[in-house]
Design goal:
The complex is a heterotrimer of chains A (621), B (298) and C (180).
Chain A (H helix, E strand, L loop, with lengths): L3 H18 L3 H20 L5 E7 L4 E6 L3 H23 L6 H19 L3 H22 L5 H27 L4 H7 L5 H18 L7 H9 L2 H26 L2 H7 L1 E2 L2 E2 H23 L3 H19 L4 H33 L15 H15 L6 H14 L3 H25 L6 H4 L7 H22 L2 H11 L9 E3 L2 E3 L4 E2 L1 H22 L4 E2 L15 H4 L7 H6 L1 H5 L2 H25 L1 H22 L1
Antiparallel strand pairs in A: 1-2, 3-4, 5-6, 6-7
Helix pairs in contact in A: 1-2, 1-4, 2-3, 3-4, 3-10, 3-14, 3-19, 4-5, 4-10, 5-6, 6-8, 6-9, 7-10, 8-10, 9-13, 10-13, 10-14, 12-13, 12-17, 13-14, 13-17, 14-15, 14-16, 14-19, 15-17, 15-19, 25-26
Chain B lengths: L1 H30 L9 H10 L5 E2 L2 H20 L17 H21 L3 H32 L4 H6 L9 H4 L1 H15 L10 H4 L9 H26 L6 H21 L5 H9 L1 H15 L1
Helix pairs in contact in B: 1-10, 1-11, 2-10, 3-4, 3-10, 5-8, 5-12, 5-13, 8-10, 8-13, 10-11
Chain C lengths: L8 H12 L1 E6 L8 H5 L10 E3 L8 E4 L5 H13 L5 E5 L1 H5 L21 E3 L6 H16 L5 H7 L1 H11 L11
Parallel strand pairs in C: 1-2, 1-3, 3-4, 4-5
Helix pairs in contact in C: 1-5
Classes of the chains: A mainly alpha (621), B mainly alpha (298), C alpha/beta (180).
Bound molecules: iron/sulfur cluster.
The site of iron/sulfur cluster (SF4) has 12 residues of chain C, from helix 4.
Chain lengths: 621, 298, 180
């Protein structure tokens, strides 16, 4: 049922949302949910179809969409994430002028779906650019003063440009942009140009997925936009870069070819670049997350870190990468959707995401606490939940493919992740409740209750798939097998096995649950009913304390640790880019002096420029 | 029958762990030229804590904290083979070393939430120190583990044990000293004994995470500590001392390793948090890295 | 007064365990505090009787008042005592806790600790030597073993009377009622 009808019907109805939004709020909400369901039914539940829209017949450029393979997986994930986020948005927006926001994010959702369905590079590029511009508009809505949107669009324009260049070069050599045909025509591209293409493409994708060093736009863009939109950016939009890299590695070029042309002196530099670079992204972003005390900022950096693991997975190897990428992508997408949705509910109710003002919310919104707790446990990768599946596959594959240094870096990063995971729970939900927050009515409308229930869906899924992940893996293997004949991690009975280790999720979950329940029974039997004490009644306060900010522990949370990593955290990439800028300026200065001083230097300079131009033109032809 | 053996094993480890705690107090007393408490003092302590008449509670997570801790400790124990006999392998077949390492933090993180709901700033401070310490010693530890995994070409604990078969010169502590040194230094941090008792630090932050816990809660936590401590020693015996054929052998080997943190703890005073991180990420990690590179080049 | 009841076997075990493992919360504002370090360390080593220092009131069994209490500190002591988990005991160290001692004339100290908190055992002297501290602790241990150290029950039952006494000296009573 994915056909031209879907294409046009979605656009029409999204425009309709915008128009109806001015008339009635309830009608708008119903329509929005209806459109989402329509998209869900027509893309997720109906398989194997595609359609083409002709753009330039003479040049053979089509917007063509097909529905198969790994893209399907992303489409499904996109729908899961957006479904949850949509409910949050509909609850959170009350004013009429927010219609633009709803319109915008719906359009982004729709275009992202199409992007994941694109079956040639041209379509991919068009969708990519549309999404970039729409995101810019969206950030602009909420951030009028600062230039975070500008930062974002500049970085992404850079990425878009290199993507366009790469695309042009590919088209130049092969005469097609269709993935199916490219995978058999790639050898037409000369080696040196293939290197340029791969570098440009990778650069574009790494900007989108916030590789360390190219991540400078992320924090502002995430922090300044609406939390619901941040949820969508963090969960789905950051995966567009990943999807592009999958295209590069598995559709446009064969994996081994990409690796092989970057192999010099028998060292596979591209793999090392990805694994080490990804791990370093993970660890640096984790350290930055530990430093923050605004929950949104913590989650932002955590998002960068998780994408770092995914990027690192690209270096693992032909058979090992994809399974690791897909598991981490799925898990991270689900977790971040859930966490940001919970945060948006909290922000909607308290108007805060800063840890200093929050605290003790477990007493007033226990269900949100449970949902966050489960997601956080999954994020930290503690054993019985689904987050561990991703970690386990990642580490095993890292070891098997022999990237020991990257393995150690990422293991340290994932241990450090416990620090911020605990910090989030501690400063938002536990500890002392703020007097301001305790008087808010948290379930003032039907919408609030619905949001709370909907936000529980993903955590429950995380628990179920943590205990019984086999259906998920079977489904994923099936999708992966469309682009890859065999994978190295496989299921045998209840075991998930790799060539060096094994893991029985069901067994371990059962052990943990049985012990937990029996210990709980012992606890209840032996413990007489304990006396409930007030939150201020703590053993250390000789003088009774009666205010939130005296006991709420947020500032200098990990000061001992931060003291050690200060050399890393204080050197922001801003300063780094400032230095590069200064360096370029200095060079320009030197050149100008040369230029002015004598005639010979002028001639030399002209000569150099001409030579550079010739090289560039030659390599591009 | 398996259930009976499992329960027996847990109880045995529990009794042995509490005994070691008491013995540790006695030995440190003797080192300090004191008479010291009786060896069975810790049994009495736990019994007393269990017989306390009242308890206080700060909320549901506070109540669940000790349950989390016990679950984490016993779960970890069950994944580590105590001895090579069939009954005492427990569930060692359900997960490899990476699973064990992630299960080990389950209890501590659950307990961290409890301490956090206790709302005592000292508790949260202690947890933040403990997590920092965890991150600190994890680096040398994983370096050691990765070297062992490279040597055995397997992440499975039973494979690592079987690679050390045949005489004590095959034990990894002698075969891979560059893996053993960082791992054993990490063990000091893991045990939270003297130079690294920063999370507890009674003189600074009033026993940190435990500050709000009394009575039966504390009793559960001490029991859990006894099991968890012994489980970690058993893990180390399996990793570096070639495992054990029977429980008696294991008891002896655990005792041998247990002496190491004890005596180190008696000599050195407490580090600051940042000093501990610098220490662990310094020399031990460097040794591990050198070992890794040497093993890699071979 | 609490009637001496017949104890069953579990209570006997309870009392035995409590007697053999005493964790001290030392309230060291009085001069007697100076005698406690030698009591704890190698010279006198109270740990051989199972007596150990506790970190916080929640974990402690014994509240050891080491001497005179000013009205300000009494407030803290009451709060610490009420945060302890029963069974809990109070030891008054030095003559100041018994009858005011040399602070008899002071405008700012309390004279009889027993009016405010149920003291289980007194250790007389100004100041008591470590030997007598340990002697007192052992005596307390014996009393507990016999099941007669019931100060905490007395406090619960006569809470009104104690509160009235406490409020009489502490003029600006701002202890929260949630304490007990
Ligand atoms: S009894 Fe003597 S030593 Fe003790 S507090 Fe009073 S004056 Fe000081």
């Amino acid at each position: 049922m994915v056909n031209v009808l879907y294409f046009y019907a979605m656009i029409m109805s999204i425009v309709l949302i915008y128009i109806i939004g001015d008339i009635s709020k309830i009608l708008r909400n119903i329509l929005a949910i209806f459109i989402f369901l329509y998209s869900l039914v027509s893309t997720v539940f109906v398989n194997e179809a595609g359609f083409t829209i002709n753009v330039m017949k003479s040049m053979n450029l089509n917007m063509s969409f097909s529905y198969s393979g790994i893209g399907t997986f992303f489409v499904i994930l996109n729908h899961i994430a957006f479904g949850v986020i949509l409910i949050n948005i509909l609850n959170n927006i009350n004013k009429k002028r927010d219609n633009g926001f709803l319109f915008n994010i719906f359009l982004i959702f729709y275009l992202t779906t199409l992007l994941f369905m694109s079956s040639n590079l041209f379509t991919f590029f068009i969708m990519w650019e549309f999404i970039s511009i729409l995101i810019y508009f969206n950030i602009g809505i909420f951030d009028k003063k600062e230039n975070s949107g500008l930062k974002y669009i500049l970085m992404n324009a850079l990425g878009g440009m290199s993507l366009l260049l790469a695309m042009a070069m590919i088209f130049n050599f092969t005469g097609t942009l269709d993935f199916e045909r490219l995978s058999s025509l790639y050898y037409l591209i000369p080696r040196s140009q293939a290197i340029v293409i791969i570098l440009l493409f990778t650069f574009a994708m790494l900007i989108k997925s916030a590789f360390w060093g190219l991540h400078t736009w992320v924090k502002d863009a995430y922090m300044r936009s609406n939390t619901c939109f941040t949820a969508y950016m963090s969960s789905v939009l950051s995966k567009i870069g990943i999807f592009g890299l999958i295209l590069l590695f598995y559709k446009i070029f064969p994996y081994d070819y990409v690796i092989q042309i970057f192999t010099f002196y028998n060292i596979q530099f591209f793999r090392i670049f990805f694994t080490i670079g990804g791990s370093i992204t993970a660890i640096l972003a984790t350290i930055m997350a530990i430093k923050e005390q605004n929950v949104k900022a913590i989650l932002t950096y955590s998002s960068i870190a998780q994408v770092g693991y995914i990027i690192a997975s690209f270096g693992l190897g032909y058979r090992w990468s994809i399974i690791s990428i897909m598991t981490i992508t799925t898990v991270h997408l689900l977790i971040k959707t859930s966490l940001f949705s919970d945060l948006s509910f909290i922000e909607y109710k308290t108007g805060q995401t800063d840890g200093v003002e929050l605290g003790g919310l477990i007493k007033v919104i226990p269900f949100t606490f449970v949902s966050t707790l489960i997601s956080i446990i999954a994020l930290a990768g503690i054993v019985p939940l689904m987050g561990f599946a991703a970690k386990w596959i990642y580490f095993e594959n890292m070891f098997i493919s022999g990237h020991y240094i990257a393995l150690i870096i990422s293991f340290l990063a994932s241990t450090l992740a416990f620090l911020y995971c605990y910090k989030i729970l501690s400063i938002v939900f536990l500890g002392i409740i703020n007097e301001k927050n305790s008087s808010i009515n948290y379930f003032s409308s039907l919408g609030d209750s619905i949001v709370t229930i909907v936000n529980m869906i993903i955590p429950i899924a995380l628990v179920i798939f943590g205990f019984y992940p086999y259906p998920f893996f079977r489904f994923m293997f099936e999708k992966i097998s469309k682009i890859l004949p065999s994978a190295n991690v496989f299921l045998s009975g209840n075991f998930i096995e790799s060539s060096i280790g094994y893991w029985n999720p069901l067994n371990i979950a059962t052990i943990v649950v049985i012990i937990f329940v029996s210990m709980f029974i012992i606890f209840v039997l032996l413990m007489r009913k304990p006396r409930k004490v007030s939150q201020y009644d703590i053993a250390m306060s000789a003088e009774p304390v009666r205010s939130h900010n005296n006991l709420h522990y947020v500032m200098n949370f990990y000061d001992g640790f931060l003291e050690v990593v200060k050399p890393i955290t204080s050197k922001s990439s801003k300063r780094f880019y400032g230095k590069i800028y200064g360096f370029i300026e200095d060079i320009g200065d030197v050149l100008r002096k040369l230029h002015l001083n004598s005639l010979t230097s002028k001639n030399i300079l002209t000569g150099i420029i001409i030579i550079v131009l010739i090289i560039v033109i030659w390599s591009a032809v | 029958m398996n259930i009976v053996w499992t329960v027996l094993g847990i109880i045995g480890v529990y009794i042995y762990g509490v005994f070691l705690m008491g013995l540790g107090r006695k030995i440190s007393a003797r080192v300090q030229l004191r008479y010291g408490p009786p060896v069975y003092q810790n049994y009495i302590d736990i019994l007393k804590l269990w017989t306390k008449k009242t308890n206080i509670s700060h909320g549901i997570m506070f109540d669940l904290g000790p349950v989390f801790l016990l679950t984490g400790s016993i779960g970890t124990l069950l994944l580590i083979p105590i001895a090579a006999t069939e009954q005492l392998m427990y569930f060692g077949f359900s997960g490899d070393i990476i699973v064990i390492m992630y299960l080990m933090v389950f209890g501590s993180l659950g307990f961290a939430l409890a301490a956090s709901q206790g709302a005592n700033p000292f508790g949260i401070m202690g947890i933040s120190r403990a997590l920092t310490l965890l991150a600190a010693y994890e680096l040398p530890f994983i370096l050691g583990i990765v070297i062992l995994m490279m040597d055995a070409n397997s992440a499975s604990l039973s494979n690592i044990i079987s690679h050390q078969a045949g005489g004590y010169m095959n034990w990894y502590i002698f075969k891979q000293p560059l893996a053993a040194i960082p791992a054993f230094i990490a063990l000091l941090g893991m045990m939270g004994k003297q130079p690294f008792d920063i999370p507890i630090a009674p003189q600074e932050i009033a026993t940190g995470p435990m500050a709000e816990f009394g009575g039966k809660y504390l009793g559960m936590m001490m029991s859990s500590h006894a099991i968890f401590m012994t489980a970690k020693y058993i893990l180390f015996v399996n990793l570096f001392l070639g495992g054990a054929g029977n429980p008696i052998n294991m008891i002896f080997k655990v005792f041998l390793i247990w002496l190491f943190p004890l005596f180190v703890g008696l000599v050195y005073p407490r580090f600051k948090t940042s000093q501990a991180v610098r220490f662990f990420w310094g020399v031990p990690s460097l040794i591990g890295l050198i070992g890794l590179i040497i093993h890699w080049l071979r | 007064m609490i009637e001496k009841k017949k104890r069953n076997i579990f209570q006997i075990i309870d009392d035995w365990a409590s007697a053999r493992s005493l964790w001290l919360l030392m309230y060291c504002t009085g001069c007697g505090a100076i005698e406690l370090p030698p009591t704890m360390t190698s010279r006198y080593d109270m740990e051989r009787f199972g007596i150990a220092p506790a970190g916080t009131p929640r974990q402690a069994d014994i509240l050891l008042i080491t001497g005179y209490l000013s009205i300000k500190t009494l407030k803290r002591v009451i709060r610490a005592y009420e945060q302890m988990q029963s069974p809990k005991y109070v030891i008054g160290l030095g003559s100041c806790t018994i009858n005011g001692g040399m602070y008899w004339d002071s405008y700012n100290t309390i004279k009889m600790l027993d009016l405010y908190l149920p003291v289980d055992i007194w250790i007389a002297g100004c100041m008591p030597r470590p030997e007598s501290v340990i002697g007192g602790l052992n005596k307390l241990s014996d009393i507990i073993k016999a099941g007669e150290a019931n100060g905490w029950k007395k406090y619960n039952e006569n809470l009104k009377w104690y509160r009235a006494n406490q409020k009489k000296v502490i003029k600006k009573w701002d202890l929260p009622e949630f304490n007990y």
